[in-house]
Specification:
Largest sheet: none
Number of strands: 0
Number of helices: 18
Shape: globular
Helix content: over 70%
Radius of gyration: 22 Å
Order of helices and strands: HHHHHHHHHHHHHHHHHH
Strand content: under 5%
């Protein structure tokens, strides 16, 4: 067996251990009976219906939640183009980008709060309250007047961002109440709702706000669509198990993270790479418009890229069987960085199609693999929630500052090569951090083998 194969098998075992830990700590009620291998393989598995009406309904509900929240957030490129060209022309592209970057920042940060509340049994409070907040925010967005930046920022940047962040963790975590053996597949299915949403929402928005309906009625139509889907999700999703009594000491776990060099470089890699990650999501459609490639193609440029991201996410589940997970993450971030640099020479329809397909594919792999890498960096799986929270905070910082910096570099004259160079270099630095992280992991593995 080669070293890479051995490391790949180790990752698979780590992920299986993560699932088993989730069964005992996050999904089951406290029990005084000792946990044994026999109960884990026999009685415990029988406690999970692995489907049933409630299980499948909850999975469909989680899919609809991702479709209506994160899928809407990563469709911001449509709004970036429309605001910069038509609706908020008194502000620069950098200022407008703060709307989407704040939304992305709050999506990550509010997930920390939502995770703690979910653990304490507030699933329905989060589901109903955040769904109402998402619907309210989008309907209020439709009332925003032209060139009133603060109205759009409050509704779309803050309101919708908080709603998406509060819904993400509960909608994914509740699947562990019903599925054990197929949990990874069901979570992949639920998360794919975001990518389908990132295909559907741009098509709908581009054909409404840029069409006969106009901004106000187009956003209301979109808000009504999202509200209806969230209402269905609220009716479908149900918990099955009481909240866990298990609690992790956050401060003690965070202190251990500060002494883990591999984890530190992993978080630095996430923070720096995400600075570049959002650049095509926010600016690809505007780039196509400014190159006079026609409204029809420009409107579908994001759709092409997000469809490729969906394919990349699905294919990553196959690729990790043959390659070490950190290696795959490094390959994905390296390719994304090179492709972003290649935006300098993208001026034609064919160029934008090739860029969208390639970048979308490798970006999808990155999104699918950063979570397993964090699991690999967690020696004590009882601290995984804390480490995931810290990683999300690192990504939130990168997502907050990246798009506005890119907008400032573009200037009102839209000098596209500046944004491509900056984000390509930022992505390469993030990739370098992941390489250092992997080298530390390899050294640790060799040291353990000697002992």
């Amino acid at each position: 067996m080669s070293n890479d194969e051995g490391e790949g098998i180790q990752v698979i075992h780590s992920e299986k251990a993560l699932l088993n830990r989730g069964d005992k700590t996050a999904s089951e009620p406290a029990s005084s009976e000792p946990s044994t291998e026999q109960s884990e393989s026999g009685t415990q598995l029988q406690d999970f219906p692995e489907g049933g009406w409630s299980g499948w309904a909850t999975a469909i509900g989680a899919f609809l939640v991702q479709f209506s929240t994160y899928g809407y957030s990563i469709s911001f490129g449509v709004y970036q183009d429309f605001y910069a060209q038509t609706y908020i022309t008194n502000e620069t592209a950098s200022t407008i980008a703060w709307i989407g970057s704040t939304n992305a920042f709050l999506f990550e940060i509010c997930g920390l709060v939502a995770g703690r509340l979910y653990d304490r049994g507030y699933f329905y409070h989060l589901l109903y309250g955040a769904s109402l907040l998402q619907a309210f925010s989008l309907f209020m967005l439709s009332l925003a007047r032209p060139d009133n930046y603060y109205q759009v920022f409050l509704t779309q940047g803050i309101g919708s961002g908080c709603a998406a962040g509060l819904l993400y963790v509960p909608s994914m975590a509740v699947l562990s109440h019903y599925f054990n053996k197929r949990r990874e597949q069901l979570m992949t299915f639920a998360s794919s709702g975001a990518y389908l949403g990132a295909v559907v929402h741009p098509i709908m928005l581009n054909n409404t706000i840029n069409g006969q309906l106009g901004f106000a009625n187009g956003v209301r139509a979109s808000a009504g669509f999202v509200s209806g889907l969230l209402l269905i999700a609220c009716l479908l999703m149900r918990t099955r198990l009481p909240p866990s009594d298990f609690r992790t000491n956050f401060l003690a776990a965070a202190e251990k993270c500060g002494k883990d060099s591999a984890f530190i470089f992993g978080c630095l890699g996430l923070c720096i790479f995400v600075v570049a990650f959002y650049y095509p999501l926010f600016y690809l459609q505007l780039d196509a418009v400014r190159h006079d490639l026609g409204d029809t193609f420009s409107f579908y440029s994001l759709v092409i890229m997000n469809t490729a991201s969906f394919v990349g996410q699905l294919s990553s589940t196959v690729l990790v069987v043959y390659f070490h997970v950190p290696t795959m993450l490094i390959m994905a971030t390296f390719c994304c960085s090179v492709i972003i640099l290649g935006m300098i020479g993208v001026h034609t329809v064919a160029g934008f199609v090739v860029f969208g397909v390639l970048y979308g594919y490798f970006a999808g792999i990155f999104l699918a693999l950063w979570t397993p890498v964090m699991a690999l960096l967690t020696p004590d799986l009882s601290e995984l929630g804390v480490r995931m929270g810290i990683a999300c905070a690192a990504m939130a910082i990168g997502g907050l500052v990246g798009p506005p910096i890119s907008g400032a570099l573009l200037t009102p004259a839209y000098v596209w090569w500046r944004g491509a160079v900056f984000n390509g270099i930022a992505g390469a630095i993030g990739c370098t951090m992941f390489i250092v992280m992997q080298r530390i992991l390899i050294r640790r593995s060799k040291a353990k083998a000697k002992n």
